[in-house]
Design a protein that fits this description.
By secondary structure, this protein is α/β, with parallel strands linked by helices. The protein has eight helices and 14 strands. It has a six-stranded mixed sheet with strand order 1-2-3-6-7-8, covered by helices on one side. A six-stranded mixed sheet has the order 9-10-11-12-13-14. α5 crosses α7. It is globular and about 60 Å long. The mean pLDDT is about 95.
């Protein structure tokens, strides 16, 4: 990861704060069942929009999916008369299924994710014995974003930041003066993402967060999850770089990499696996598409038994 990308990101944010710059309109949708926040972000002048980290409703006991959460997004987009250009994923989620394919059917938009999805597909393709028909080249997505990729949504400049560590493919989206950070970091009173999934790396996560925290302190950060830290009575999903630097319980100013890695590894060792990890990863590594139906026309989720 090049420092020139961070320099470009700082310039992007400076321009986003300049007089006359267009600020994004941001609408958050909180899914309490998975503690996930999805976003619709649009340009107020052109009404062009992106949807970030959508949620498909999934009942693990019955194996049934539904679209109530995604339908709320459809209704919002219609009420605001938005044109959806992109369905964006910050990474392959392990705690919820993506609704991106269904939302594409309803609203359009190209599906994008970080280019390192290919590494994730190779790792989890083996873990789930997905077979040779499962493509491990990212072709399930319309765009694979490299670090520092730039594009526009209406008059809003967009830039990507590769932030590996939680998974190899984590990516943040800078849209105007806001950054959508995925699972990399949480509210200051809750800390940082775990790094013990296959392909995760606590040291890499530390370095990625330092990249993020090198952005201007007033930069707004929008989170993918909140778990309402002890002592807090409401969910929150917006903070700033400055607040994270001064108050994040895991990685505030003065915490070095060695200390962070020691803390993160010890904490991760005591965490349970996400309840929806098995279905989520198998679906999300396919761009939100269910595994190919078997000869009875039904799609199945695999659960490896006693895998070392």
């Amino acid at each position: 990861m090049s420092d020139t990308v961070i320099q470009a990101a700082v310039m992007h944010l400076e321009q986003a704060h300049a007089p006359g710059a267009v600020r994004p309109i941001i609408k958050a949708f909180f899914d309490e069942a998975t503690n996930t926040i999805s976003y619709v972000v649009h340009c107020p002048e052109t009404l062009q929009a992106v949807i970030i980290d959508s949620v498909l409703d999934y009942d693990a006991a019955s194996g049934r999916t539904s679209y109530a959460s995604a339908q709320v997004i459809v209704e919002y987009v219609a009420s605001e008369r938005l044109e959806v250009l992109w369905q964006l994923e910050t990474h392959v989620h392990a705690d919820h299924l993506s609704a991106a394919p269904w939302l594409q059917e309803q609203l359009g938009g190209r599906l994008g994710i970080g280019a390192e999805i290919i590494r994730v597909q190779n790792v989890f393709g083996k873990i789930f014995n997905a077979g040779s028909r499962f493509a491990r080249d990212g072709s399930q997505f319309d765009a694979l974003f490299e670090d520092g990729h730039a594009f526009t949504v209406g008059r809003l400049p967009v830039m990507t930041l590769h932030l590996p560590g939680h998974t190899p493919a984590d990516i943040a989206y800078l849209i105007g003066d806001a950054v959508f950070v995925g699972d990399t970091i949480f509210m200051p009173d809750f800390g940082t993402a775990r790094a013990d999934f296959p392909g995760g790396d606590a040291g890499q996560l530390y370095r990625s967060i330092q990249r993020l925290l090198s952005l201007p302190p007033e930069t707004r950060l929008f989170l993918c999850h909140d778990y309402k830290a002890p002592g807090r009575d409401k969910y929150c999903w917006q903070t700033t770089v400055g607040e994270e630097i001064t108050a994040n319980i895991h990685i505030k100013d003065g915490v070095d990499e060695k200390s962070f890695v020691k803390m993160r590894m010890a904490r991760d060792a005591g965490l349970a696996m996400p309840k929806l990890l098995m279905p989520s990863v198998q679906v999300n590594m396919r761009g939100g598409v269910f595994p190919e139906p078997e000869d009875d026309g039904v799609s199945y989720i695999k659960i490896p038994l006693n895998r070392v």
